[in-house]
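Kindly inspect this today.
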Amino acid sequence: MADDEDWSSNANEALHISFVQAGQSEPITISTFHPKFTYPIFGDEECIFGYQGLAINLRFAAHDLSPNLTVSHDKKFGPVDEVVPLDIEDALKEWIPRIAFQDPAKFDSHIQQDARNWEPPGQLLERYTSRGRKFEVFSGPLTNPAIQQLVDRIQILVSFFIEGGTPIPLDDQDWSLARWRVFFIYEKLSSLPSSRTSPYSLVGYATTYRFLPHESRSIDPQAPVKTHDFNLPPLDPFSLDSLPARDRISQFLILPSHQSHSHGTHLYNTIVRLFLADPTTTEITVEDPNEAFDDLRDYCDYARLTANGTFSKIRFPISSQQQLDPKLFAKTRGTRVPTSKLLDLPVLSTLRHQNKIAPRQFARLVEMHLLKQFPLSVRQSGTMRITRKARSADEEDRKWYYWRLLLKQRIYKKNKDTLKQLDRVERVEKCEDAVGAQAGDYERLLRKMAEKGTGEAELDTNNEEVDASEGLLSIGGKGRRDRGKRKVLDDEDEELEGTPEPKRARE
């Protein structure tokens, strides 16, 4: 029998994903690219056995996302005992709708049909222009049949481009599907190759899921807790949409052909604006972003908190040295350091709730904002300027010590169980390394924002936006492999006092 390698094909290279639109006489391909992952379908090795010269072509109509699959090859392996070629169509049948297996001629005929009046389903949320081209963002619930059809056709790309991502089960009950909201970005073309061509071409899409917490977090943390009597079943019907909830971004994908053009920034900001305006949304979270999506999110959130005046309300430290708690200057080892006295925690809590940002993300943004207030010479000094800690005669040195102390506290609390297993010397070393790594990452983000100027809302993350669009894990995702995500031990060798860390490790 011939060497197995002669009959094995790299699935990522063999699979070609194309988007097509109507032309004068036949469909025109407007973009083609390969998947980043195929292991959910073809196994961890991402290899297909049994073919030579294998080509798998998965085409989508650029407007309504109708799919079509064709498989071609130069040679096919002849079965030997139980060794047989992989049935490619059978492997894909659970991942794409049945219509994808229709005759290619029927698909071409569908593409060439008059679609000039076709419009994306849902509510138009935003129009914007990028590089002289026009784009629109639409959104609607997954219970909308037209939206559900688009998701059914396109969500195989979740497994191709989102590490560990899995499709949404569209056969779920309506009350469950109603928790999902879908956002589409379409380019609205001004120059069309045919009078029958739809002006709309997909750029990317995202999904969000609505969680109903057991205990809602009031937008106003000072507001009294209200209780109400109710009957089961309720006397009057009500919608889950009327209840306080956390909305979580679950899947987020910009097509490779449209990446690095700031579409991820526009899509993220549109999602956030919608939920900020929704009185029932108490918090906006993200399921499991990779590091590049973390960057995109940090840029957008930082720009928004700068523009809306949130950062201008945060003072650090809140008191002069004479007014600070004496324990902040303690020399005795083991003294509990009341870092909660450095910042106005009630103000921070109010600001966080107003912006509907998860606790950890808000803490990171505040840390980054405070870091930016230091002169570059202080920021580049590391630990060299804090040998006297809070007892330094230089005010900037004292503030620098306090900033690192706050960061160290958050890191320590987040990793407390792990750090407690280490001896003190190793614990101190791990914490210091983590603080340095996190500070360095903040510097990287601040440099990038400075390079882009003050218009971070229009920030183009270049190649990082490519990763950002591939970075979210869909709900129910599994099988995730190495993702190269930053592993930063989140702070401190001293016993610290402050606000309690949220129970959720991520957000």
